[in-house]
Amino acid sequence: MENPARETIDTSRPHPARMYDYYLGGKDWFEADRQTAEQVVARFPAVRTWARANRQFMHRATRTLAREEGVRQFLDVGTGIPTAPNLHQVAQEIAPESRVVYVDNDPLVIEYADALLRSTPQGRTTYLEADVRTHDLLADPRVTGTLDLEQPVALSLVALMHFMPDESEPYALVRHLLDPLAPGSFLVLSHATADFDHVGGTDEIRSTYGSHGISAAPRPRKEVARFFDGLDLLDPGVVVGHRWRPDEEPRLPDEEVGFYAGVARKP
């Protein structure tokens, strides 16, 4: 695997991917990540539930696309630190020939490349360290060398776009990624919301992230649904994440999950 020269890991500042790992109960974080994550937990104790539900949504969406829709190519942007089973493990368990490209801008993720690249012999996985806001992913040879962009690809943007404020033009960014993909491709997206916040905790969380240079932009359902404009949503549409094709009847209240999710096909 080839990767360009990458930035030094800054352990003095928190990173969303490492904070997410902390919420999931992982061990791949630094003290700055723990301190900031604990500030968030103090204001929003359900954030650990939110992180697990996001992960479970990704698993269900990937299984659905691999098993029911015949998708064999996946582009996962905002990969984060791999927590097994990761996307390629879920997809390749159903279809061993599946090909997966992981993308993240946290240099720490490259330390886990062995886990990310442990593909089945029939399939392939590749990791690319890049910032989706500044890097033309679909022109990168590590992407085009792994995925056939003339065939359907599932674009996975799980727990990513709520770190893109409006000034980053998040809707245009998603369109830029979707437009070159073949008809029959899919968008898998989850996004934090403040729709269920009745006590103002979301503003405090945004302030906590913002004080450490991390933009946070939770959006209402109508704005999350805009990411799917022009696409054909799979049932049940854009719903609270744990209600997207659950393996069993959801028991958690929506406010403890706190994000919307959906999967849609490109016509």
Q: Architecture in CATH?
A: 3-Layer(aba) Sandwich
Q: Write down the overall mean pLDDT.
A: 88
Major beta sheet, specifics? 8 strands, mixed
CATH superfamily: Vaccinia Virus protein VP39
Reported by name, the CATH topology is Rossmann fold
| CATH classification, class level | Alpha Beta
Layout of helices and strands:
Blueprint: H1 16-23, H2 31-43, H3 47-67, E1 73-77, H4 87-94, E2 99-104, H5 113-116, E3 124-129, H6 141-144, E4 154-158, H7 170-178, E5 186-192, H8 201-210, H9 221-225, E6 232-233, E7 239-240, H10 254-257, E8 259-265
Helix pairs in contact: 1-2, 2-8, 3-4
Task: Report on the architecture of this protein.
- Helix 1 packs across helix 2 (31-43) and helix 2 runs antiparallel to helix 8 (201-210).
- This protein is 32% helix and 15% strand.
- The protein has a single domain (50-199, 217-265), classed as Vaccinia Virus protein VP39 (Rossmann fold), CATH 3.40.50.
- Strand 4 (154-158), helix 7 (170-178) and strand 5 form a beta-alpha-beta unit.
- The chain has 267 residues and is α/β, with parallel strands linked by helices.
- The chain is globular.
- Strands 1, 2, 3, 4, 5, 6, 7 and 8 form an eight-stranded mixed sheet that branches.
Which labels suit this protein?
267 residues, 8 strands, eight-stranded mixed sheet, Rossmann fold, globular, 32% helix, alpha/beta
